[in-house]
Fold each of these.
Amino acid sequence: MTATNRQILLASRPEGEPSVDNFRLVETPIPALADGQVLVRNHYLSLDPYMRGRMNDTKSYAAPQPLDEVMIGGTVGEVVESRSDRFEVGDHVVGMGGWQEFQVADGTPGQLRKVDTTHIPLQAYLGAVGMPGITAWYGLTQIIDPKPGETVVVSAASGAVGSVVGQLAKERGARVVGLAGGPEKCRFVVSELGFDVCIDYREHPDARSLSAALKTACPNGIDGYFENVGGIILDAVMLRSNAFSRIAMCGMIAGYNGEPTPMQIPALILINRMTIRGFIVSEHMEFWPEALTELGSLYAAGRLRYRESIAQGLDSAPEAFLGLLKGRNFGKQLVKLT
Ligand SMILES: NC(=O)c1ccc[n+]([C@@H]2O[C@H](COP(=O)([O-])OP(=O)(O)OC[C@H]3O[C@@H](n4cnc5c(N)ncnc54)[C@H](OP(=O)(O)O)[C@@H]3O)[C@@H](O)[C@H]2O)c1
């Protein structure tokens, strides 16, 4: 194989908001495979908010993305050459192929996983039936654990994680209220995803105003909150939280560029005897099979809906990633690489 690979590297670390200049596109020859290796043509790249954290060289739950190396990222694709007895040419696979058109993978268990595309589209393994869906499943079932009739609030409700959280909560008989940016996203959250209500948080300049809207949307208070954003949204939810409510701390995207996101009234944790628990989905691999079974079955039954924003071509990845951090995506942000 003499083809050329195109890759996007992290060229420099951002200070505050990232820009396209933090990335560099390079072309490299595809190396010959060693025994046990496979060559995968990546079809879709997943863009995810966690990538912003990896661009920093600061203490976190994961090591920083090294400079001048291929940006980390989840991918789905097809095996085009194999020297592994575990994979055949034509197999569809999901893995961490990075921001590049081809990947040479060792084919070791855990690095690449074969997926069945008979009933589930390939790219869904990067979204509702992949890491974001499992994130939703874990935070909802293991932390919020809603009872029928309880009220669950979800921020970034139209997004890859949030959209699944709300649908899983409805499956469990909860009243579900979403928060999303703009009327179009809110309409989708209610009419397509089946949430009971969706509040456009952009109409509310501060936590008090948003909290008043939540009071109307949640007449019985809030029992569970799936946190994707932070900042004034968290404050507004806490003002309406019930005794013994649970918050699954999944993400705080409002602060990913270093913006301060202080909690205004931490005393509410004590007053309401709240449980607030952070989690990282990759640290709970033992739950992935159970989560994937439920998500796959719901999808096959037509009860798991989602939306995708698809950018075309590897070159478009940096711009699409910057858009994700500003809410310009509408649903799971992917890059189509073929
Ligand atoms: N803990 C884990 O293991 C884990 C795993 C996966 C994802 N996450 C976290 O889950 C969250 C959602 O991820 P996702 O992949 O599903 O992304 P997503 O929701 O598909 O896209 C990000 C969304 O965040 C919202 N947003 C961006 N900047 C914002 C801001 N300043 N204020 C309010 N909202 C903002 C936007 O929606 P609106 O236009 O509606 O505001 C945007 O569409 C992120 O915080 C991510 O880091 C955590």
Amino acid sequence: MRVVASVSEYGSIVESIGGRYVQVTSVIAKPDQDPHSYQPGAQVQLALSKAQLIIENGGGYDTFIDTLRSSLHSSAPVINVVQLSGLDHGSADFNEHVFYNYPTMLKLVDRVEQVLASTEPTHAAAFRSNAAALTKQIQHLEAETGAMHASFHGDPVAYTEPVPGYLFDAIGLVNVTPTAFSHAVEDGNDVPPAALNTMLHLVSSRSTVRLLAYNEQASSVEAELVKKRAAASGVPVVGVTETLPVGMNYVEWQQSNIDHVKEALHQ
Ligand SMILES: [Zn+2]
């Protein structure tokens, strides 16, 4: 069964559940690609035309999937992870990086299992047991952030882009980044000078922020400046990504994010 996922973390989830019965194409899988400015080529169109299941993030993140689907008149089932999350209430501040939200990923595991089992009922038992194993691993991530909450809730943190926002929420960390800063970086716009100054001030001391999360996939002059200031001021910088680092599956990736945040908070 052929599956197309817009980003590699969703592809990884499908591979874990489908095993050898699925052929997964993850459109955005290179660590140096910025998903927000991705332009699909002809291979993506070809893969989508053959897909029997399509997984998109939604929330304006990977609109190219819907554009191609409608031009191809695709009738393959689609899982829109933002819709599945139930987290989008139409607020302008909605954080579309739902792959850092473990309750959403648990819903995704269930949904993928259902679609795979209904498409290939003969392998339903394998899908069920793989999904159960993955669910356990994601619940373990949740338990770990829950345990961190006791020690670190209320600690102020900052990020160059809201990438790890849901992870921070789960630990109870308080994001103090000016929204004008993170929105501009995410949208690839110039950061307003006042927001840049506030941000530079914030990352100049560990008493104002305990760590800075830096999106390694979005290059911006201002984000780079802030990262340098944090490093020079002894504020730990935690690199985060929007797709899987090479050689990692979803759970390994999130475990390493948790480990890096924990290490930074303990410093
Ligand atoms: Zn992003």
Amino acid sequence: MAFVRACGLSELEDDTPRRVELDGTPVAVVRSEGEVFAINDICSHANVSLSEGEVEDCSIECWLHGSSFDLRTGKPSGLPATRPVPVYPVKIEGDDVLVSVTQES
Ligand code: FES
């Protein structure tokens, strides 16, 4: 599984998603509750960028219709979204946040 650098750890502010594109895949990188998560940036309900939504309690909320996705599993907590969003493995090396988009975690 190939990890690529997504951003610097020091560039991430708590609960403020950062959108990056890795191998053509849009990814929202989020530091929340002391951990870093990588979740596909597109809502599973419609083509909306999740990184423009709010983060709270390890969940990211889609700003359009309000479904929240667990940053650990990608599962929606409520309607209208019913399908999970892919989440990806993250590794921290020094100040580098590395993400593998070739395999969903
Ligand atoms: S587009 Fe995200 S919940 Fe509808």
